[in-house]
Write a structure and sequence with these properties.
Shape: globular
Helix content: 25-40%
Number of helices: 10
Structural class: alpha+beta
CATH topology of the largest domain: Transferase(Phosphotransferase), domain 1
Number of strands: 10
Distance between the termini: 53 Å
CATH class of the largest domain: Mainly Alpha
CATH superfamily of the largest domain: Transferase(Phosphotransferase) domain 1
Low-confidence stretches: 195-223, 296-300
Number of domains: 2
Largest sheet: 5 strands, antiparallel
CATH architecture of the largest domain: Orthogonal Bundle
Order of helices and strands: EEEHEEEHHEEEEHHHHHHH
């Protein structure tokens, strides 16, 4: 760690603390992610090993760059390129005015899908996509970060834990207990993120459709919502509240529209039977007919 000078403490995450630091060899400002090594007998946490191994394999302009790895004083530091703003804080700064504008929404949406496309093309599931894990550089480019929950996947699909992804961005098959899932879990999260500002062109629809459907996005590809509505689409406070919020908007699924749903571990025959609502009306801040057309493109 003698090559880095910590300048200030950033934020405290689930798996460690992030610092702003300076590389004394180059003068470059970097981000240091300190990994907690509380259980010394178990060594480096599996989340850190997973994040390191996957990031070392990836090289894409929409994926945060891992620059170095340092181990000192029973602590592990991951050195990343420095990006001091995430999408959540960016959207909060925009406020309740006219939002980010169509050009920025199109740009971020394209870059998010491009980063996810790269991951899926290299058989990597992120599994924790949310605005806080999407970083923005000084040139206004969006990059995927925090791969602590990411996993490599293959064919046939293996069994995974269902306790992934921040609740508001968790796909319905995961909420219903499925342990065999694929790229759809990320695409659902993507759909819940994009759209927190007003948009009024069809360019974004064309670009996102071109990218996502090339990823074999299934019914779990969801309407692009949070940047359009400027609010989380499904802000549940528990797993059952989250799944019911989804059902109230999209309708309670059955075997006709979702073959196999009744075989999922946490599906209950006694679930309330809701009919699908008008999605365009639900996302009140979308302009003209864009919101409804765009959402239905992904749902129907």
């Amino acid at each position: 760690m003698e090559n880095y000078n910590r300048l200030e403490k950033g934020f405290v995450g689930t798996y460690g603390v992030v610092y702003k630091a300076k590389d004394l060899r180059t003068g470059e400002i970097v981000a240091l992610k300190k990994i907690r090594l509380e259980a010394e007998d178990e060594g480096v946490p599996s989340t850190a090993i997973r994040e390191i191994s996957l990031l070392k394999e990836m090289n894409d302009e929409n994926i945060v760059r891992l620059l170095d790895i340092c181990h000192a004083e029973a602590k592990l530091f991951l050195v990343f390129e420095f990006l001091d703003l995430d999408l959540k804080r960016y959207m909060d700064k925009v406020g309740d005015g006219d939002g980010m504008g169509p050009a920025i929404v199109k740009k971020f949406s394209y870059q998010l899908c491009r980063g996810v496309c790269y991951c899926h093309g290299h058989r990597i599931l992120h599994r924790d996509l949310k605005p806080q894990n999407l970083l923005i550089d000084k040139d206004g480019n969006l990059k995927l970060a925090d791969f602590g929950l990411a996993r490599a996947f293959g064919i046939p699909l293996r069994s995974y834990t269902h306790e992934i992804v921040t609740l508001w961005y968790r796909a319905p098959e995961v909420l219903l207990g499925s342990r065999h899932y694929s790229t759809g879990v990320d695409m659902w999260s993507v759909g819940c993120i994009i759209g927190r500002t007003k948009v009024h062109t069809l360019f974004l629809r064309h670009q996102i459709c071109k990218l996502t459907f090339s990823l074999d996005a299934s019914i779990n590809v969801f309407s692009l919502a949070e940047m359009i509505s400027r609010q989380p689409l499904f802000p549940g406070d528990s797993e059952i509240d989250e799944i019911f919020r989804i059902f109230r908007l999209l309708g309670t699924p059955n075997e006709t529209i979702w073959p196999g749903v009744q075989t999922l571990p946490d599906y209950k025959p006694g679930f309330p039977q809701w009919s699908a609502k008008d999605i365009g009306a639900h996302v009140q801040n979308s302009t003209s007919s864009f919101g409804q057309i765009f959402f239905e493109t992904f749902l129907l």
